[in-house]
Design brief:
The protein is of the alpha/beta class. The protein contains ten helices and twelve strands. Helices cover about 30% and strands about 15% of the residues. It has a twelve-stranded mixed beta sheet. The chain binds S-adenosylmethionine and iron/sulfur cluster. The site of iron/sulfur cluster has 13 residues, from helix 10.
């Protein structure tokens, strides 16, 4: 028996929701600077405050032992974390974990897609908010669209189960590209999710209340061209999916602002500095780094702290685009 032999789900919160999905942020740093995600002059965490590879592995192993079946690596940009392949390899082999996935901006995928696949990553989501090079640059401040397109191509070529695209839609910026982005996904037999912008972190590029657009408005645009067949599929959390008739693609709507699906939330997040966030839209958290560093190797203590923390998972989030209640940026939160 390995020390982390998987057991039945042990993570249930006080509202009866079972937590079986962990989003693990491996860095707060990024090679892009998306305007809705980061402020222009971001300050990043000193390296010693970030969890080490071993600490990340021990934490992931504890969660899997407690019944977590899916882990998504995120950030910041997970592919700029040194030794990311080593981490993927060690997590992919955790007994009991069904799926190890990643969300990436795609920039480094031309060289990293194959090694990630070889290391055991099962699926990947790639963020792309515009297909217009100038606009893409403006949205990401420094990005080159062609690198991301090459990254998407590389991910598809190495045979990841399904490549999913993510697009945050901002009214007045890229809401005129909803159909183009959907067509791009369908033409390439990929899925795409459209995401509502959340008021996480104070930004200066735009007023978030001016750029809000709901999933229903996005859906209206899509209905003009596609026959969307609603599906019961859910990943837990604020997303819904529809199949595109006559294609292999699905379109997802991630609606943290307009629709509250918190009652089926199955996930928690770990920030790069080891703070266990029980809800994206609340500050309830537990400092796991403190426990990891005070009691290295003490898996039982780590697990009992995680079990206890579930009692603090809030029932739901309340986002108000007029004000930023959550000062943490999305790159800290781990999207
Ligand atoms: N760097 C990777 C990427 O961009 O895919 C992973 C981290 S990023 C924080 C994860 C996802 O969060 C991306 O799809 C990004 O577009 C989304 N995101 C960032 N800030 C957001 C915000 N304020 N509201 C909604 N989605 C956001
Ligand atoms: Fe970086 Fe992803 Fe945030 Fe863009 S959304 S700045 S790619 S972490």
């Amino acid at each position: 028996m390995t020390p982390y032999q998987s057991t039945a789900a042990q993570l249930t919160d006080s509202f009866g929701r079972e937590v079986n999905y962990l989003r693990l942020s491996v860095t707060d740093r990024c090679n892009l600077r998306c305007t809705y995600c980061m402020a222009e002059d971001m300050r990043f965490l000193p390296r010693q405050q970030i969890l080490s590879l071993e600490e990340l592995r021990d934490t992931a192993a504890a969660f899997v032992d407690l019944g977590v079946r899916k882990i998504r690596l995120t950030g910041g940009e997970p592919l700029i974390r040194r030794d990311i392949l080593k981490l993927v390899g060690s997590l992919a082999s955790l007994p009991g974990l069904d799926e190890l996935t990643m969300t990436s901006n795609g920039v480094m995928l031309p060289t990293m897609a194959q090694p990630l696949k070889d290391a055991g990553l099962s699926r990947i989501n790639i963020s792309i908010d515009s297909l217009k090079p100038e606009r893409f640059k403006e949205l990401t401040r420094v990005g080159n669209l062609h690198e991301v397109l090459a990254g998407i191509k590389a991910a598809a070529a190495v045979g990841f189960k399904r490549v999913k695209l993510n697009a945050v839609i901002l009214a007045g910026f890229n809401d005129d590209e909803v159909l183009d982005l959907a067509r791009f996904a369908v033409d390439n037999s990929m899925d795409i999710s459209f995401i509502e912008e959340m008021p996480l972190g104070e930004i200066s590029s735009h007023k978030r209340s001016n750029t809000q657009i709901t999933s229903a408005q996005i859906r209206q645009q899509l209905d003009q061209e596609f026959n969307l067949l609603d599906s019961a599929e859910t990943t837990g959390g604020p997303s819904r999916y529809a199949a595109v008739a006559g294609s292999q693609s699905k379109i997802g709507f991630i609606s943290p602002m307009s629709n509250n699906f918190c009652s089926s939330c199955n996930r928690v997040r770990l920030t790069a500095e080891g703070r266990l966030l029980l809800c994206l839209g609340n500050e309830h958290s537990l400092d796991l780094r403190e426990i990891l560093r005070a009691y290295p190797g003490d898996a039982e203590r780590l697990k009992s702290s995680i079990i206890k923390a579930m009692g603090n998972k809030p029932e739901r989030h309340y986002f108000d685009p007029q004000q930023v209640d959550i000062v943490r940026f999305m790159n800290m939160t781990g999207g």
